[in-house]
Design goal:
heterodimer; A: 370 residues; alpha/beta; Rossmann fold; 2 domains; 5-stranded parallel β-sheet; 5-stranded mixed β-sheet; 14 helices; 18% strand; B: 312 residues; mainly alpha; ABC transporter involved in vitamin B12 uptake, BtuC; 15 helices; 78% helix; globular
């Protein structure tokens, strides 16, 4: 190797080292306690002097985290491992109706440029915009058209994260489009689910409105919960429905089980572990629900349809006594709004379980079956 | 075996429950309800489905002179699946109910049974008929895949659960109808034992023995359609039994006489499904096992074991 070649190599090495050092901005992530979320398990937002740190944990993969940063100072630096979200003129493609509700609550529906499954959307404004082609309907989350996404060029795509990564993640990264998973649906506490509105608040610069909404929701939820805590008579509750050969009921640490507990009910599977579903034989349900006063969420809007889908449901006491309640008269309304209004769901359940103590007579989502 | 099946499950029943349920049935007694409304229909369906599918498989294997044939080769299973997929896609609650699914599946099975029956009037060669049946199955399978790709998550879930198969959907009051369909099929098969034996010698020899091939074929297809259609309608698609049990019966009975093969298939098919479902009942507290998967999971290694034992 001659001297010139060796010099060239050394020069290249310096060049590489220089760029490597310049690219990695060694910003220390502050370990402050300015956490804005209290109930959410998969979302942490820290509002610091230099910017907002959004950490999203994957519910099923222990070490998988998604980190985003919103700068407060345009000259500031983005910390290591964080992806910057810019919020000048934000625009989004959202893949869940709960995202629509959260943006709607913050008066930010204008930021939605694309969504999916238009037949499941409750908000009229969005349905109209889809009809007018002002918002693109991507069909489903698993395989959206890359070309259509590019035509919108959104600030971010917010998806439900059924799989670990968004299907076109690599291609979109190259185009500078951020993909953000939203695990609000995996939260087991109703107030934790509602806290994801803060995420949309920070994305759109409406964090104060989000905090205000959350404050009202939490106050009302806790007031309702307290109102039934001292009651001696607790309604025995059965929940879920039959799918195939098994009955799927919410587990004892799930979102629904938490709501039943806060509504002063005695849920028959309250002592089971897990946040998902329990699969039991119908025989077991029949025995365990022997003393059930109510059956919540049978999955059908009328007694006739429940019996058609499960002829053996007629052996259940709440079915015989016509004490079955569901939200299926307007499922879209429930799925879209219940995440941001857990106090409405709780209010409905308290009205059903304790009609004498509840001042309300009308229900937000639930109804007795036809 | 029947007693073991009836006494197994997540809720334990004992003999005194059964005796008291027979003597003084109390509609408010949970154990009585479980025995009459859950266990009896489930046990009956296990036996009937196993026997019906095994007999259908035997008929098809003899008709097409092919040990790899089964009830599915006629496209009857696929036809039932297609109509169920179509009805689920409508999203109309009636169609997604159990009753809607049974009606749809029964209609699909009979419709596709009639299509293949129509072809059998005009096509002479059994190989051509087999090919047409397989093509119908493939075509319908592709249609179902297309429908699945267009379905919403909830519809896809309903269809997937249906395709798992089930011996628990049947209510006590539906049993007489299923029993009627199966008895018609079994009696019909029994009447066909002579021509079935003759067919083992080949079509030409069967003809010379006075068998009217075309009408024989029509009867075989009609009986298979009734048996497979009834079972698919009430239990969903159940694979493996129709293919493996007739082969297993031939091996165990060491005969080609269809009188014995028919009885063997009725017996072994019923016992096989009863055993599968008893195991499912025993593991119910720990696992969710769909019958359609378990028949192959349990049956395939068992059949391989029998084959090896016979060879070695």
């Amino acid at each position: 190797m001659d001297k010139v070649t060796r010099m060239n190599k050394v020069f290249h090495l310096f060049l590489i080292l220089f760029f490597a050092t310049a690219c990695s901005e060694n910003v220390q992530v502050p370990l402050s306690t300015k956490k804005t979320t209290n109930y959410a398990r998969f979302l942490t937002i820290r509002d610091e002097k230099n910017g907002v740190y959004i950490d999203i944990k994957h519910p099923d993969r222990k070490n998988k985290e998604y980190k985003f940063f919103i700068k407060k100072d345009s000259n500031g630096k983005v910390p290591n491992d964080y992806i910057e979200i810019k919020r000048n003129n934000p625009s989004f493609i959202v893949f869940s109706t709960t995202h629509i509700a959260m943006l709607g609550q913050l008066n930010q529906l204008k930021t939605i440029k694309g969504t999916c499954a238009s037949n499941l959307i409750y908000t009229k404004e969005i349905r109209k915009k889809i009809e007018d082609k002002a918002i693109i309907d991507f069909g489903n989350e698993s395989n959206p058209s890359l070309e259509k996404i590019i035509s919108i060029k959104p600030t971010a795509i917010i998806y439900s994260g059924f799989s670990a990564e968004f299907s076109k993640n690599k291609e979109l990264q190259k185009l500078g489009i951020i993909t953000i998973p939203n695990f609000d649906w995996k939260e087991s506490h109703p107030l934790g689910k509602a806290e994801w509105i803060l995420f949309f608040g920070y994305l759109t610069g409406t964090e104060d409105a989000a905090k205000k909404h959350l404050e009202i929701v939490q106050e009302e939820y806790n007031r309702l919960k307290k109102s039934v805590q001292g009651l001696s008579k607790r309604a025995v509750v059965l929940s879920g429905s039959k799918m195939g050969d098994f009955w799927y009921a919410p587990a004892g640490e799930s979102y629904m089980a938490q709501l039943f507990k806060d509504a002063g009910a005695n849920y028959i599977y309250k002592n089971t572990k897990g946040t998902g579903s329990l699969a039991y034989s119908q025989e077991k349900i029949l025995v365990d629900a022997k003393k059930a006063d109510f059956w919540i969420n049978p999955g059908s809007p009328s007694y006739e349809l429940v019996k058609l889908s499960n002829p053996k449901a007629s052996f259940l006491v709440p079915f015989r006594e016509k004490k079955v309640f569901c939200y299926t008269k307007d499922s879209n309304k429930y799925w879209e709004l219940s995440a941001i209004h857990p106090e409405w769901v709780l209010s409905d359940l308290i009205t059903i379980f304790h009609p004498s103590t509840s001042k309300k007579s009308n229900l937000y989502f639930y109804h007795t079956l036809d | 075996m029947m007693i073991v099946h009836v006494l197994s499950g997540q809720i334990s029943l004992n003999f005194s429950d059964i005796v008291s349920a027979f003597n003084t049935y109390d509609a408010t007694n949970t154990n009585h309800i479980i025995f009459f409304e859950f266990r009896i229909p489930r046990m009956t369906m296990s036996i009937l489905s196993g026997s019906a599918l095994a007999v259908s498989g035997m008929l098809m294997q003899t008709l097409f002179n092919n040990p790899l044939a089964g009830p599915y080769v006629l496209g009857i299973n696929s036809g039932a699946s297609l109509i169920v997929a179509l009805t689920l896609l409508t999203g109309i609650p009636f169609f997604t109910s159990d009753f809607g699914l049974i009606s749809g599946a029964l209609f699909g099975a009979l419709l596709f049974g009639s299509i293949i029956l129509y072809f059998s009037f005009y096509i002479r060669s059994n190989v051509s008929l087999l090919l047409i049946g397989l093509m119908i199955s493939s075509f319908v399978g592709a249609l179902i895949t297309t429908l699945e790709s267009m379905s919403a998550a909830e519809q896809l879930k309903s269809f997937t659960f249906w395709s798992f198969g089930s011996l628990q959907q049947t209510a006590l009051n539906q049993l007489p109808l299923i029993l009627f369909g199966c008895i018609v099929g079994f009696l019909g098969s029994f009447l066909l034992t002579k021509p079935l034996n003759a067919m083992l010698l080949g079509e030409t020899s069967a003809k010379s023995l006075g068998i009217h091939i075309r009408s024989f074929r029509i009867w075989v297809i009609a009986i298979t359609a009734i048996l497979t259609g009834t079972i698919t309608a009430f239990c969903g698609p159940i694979a493996f039994v129709g293919l493996a049990i007739p082969n297993l019966t031939r091996m165990l009975f060491q005969t080609q006489n269809h009188k014995y093969l028919l009885l063997g298939n009725l017996l072994i098919g019923g016992i096989f499904m009863l055993t599968c479902d008893t195991i499912i009942q025993l593991v119910e507290p720990y696992f969710v096992l769909p019958i359609n998967a378990f028949t192959s999971l349990f049956g395939a290694p068992f059949v391989v074991y029998i084959v090896l034992k016979k060879l070695i």
